[in-house]
């Protein structure tokens, strides 16, 4: 009996569609070359922006964010002196300033999380997701959930908001007392710069596509 040809696997007609996260416009996916961008036809939002060796660059930035976050919490942030009296405080001291009151303890913990813990957690999650991908290996268990959590926490990473608040407060305090910047101030300033760099280097579409490809193997 002659061999019969295998039936072709039906192609999913929705596989090459992509929805814009800003305006929800659905359009055909066009994979750009590294260094180029694919933007939404309606609102010009960047949908795909692959970069050559971006995974290694993101891991390097995440390691720097993690080191800076840990270091910034252990060193003096500001030192305020007036009339012979001086007081130095760290970032955690500022975040937990209201922890003495049970009513505001939860607020203090939330503030500390928004300033330091969430950026550090997102850095750890990104390294966990990208490390096997850049080495052409299967993702670690739970990589999809880890990247989904990292994306869900992205709007809550507010280190730059704390920096703006400090700048406004310092303008008022400098008229009343002498303010000296500690080592943690400059470390935190660098951290505020690196967090947007991490997000800017990450092409979420490329990461999701790589995870999906590796899982299907």
From TrEMBL:
Q: Which domain of life is it from?
A: Bacteria
Name one matching Pfam family: PqiA
- Please provide the record's keywords in A-Z order: Membrane, Transmembrane, Transmembrane helix
User: What protein am I looking at?
Assistant: Paraquat-inducible protein A
Native source species:
Pseudooceanicola antarcticus
Instruction: Report TM segments.
Output: 58-78, 103-131, 152-171, 183-201
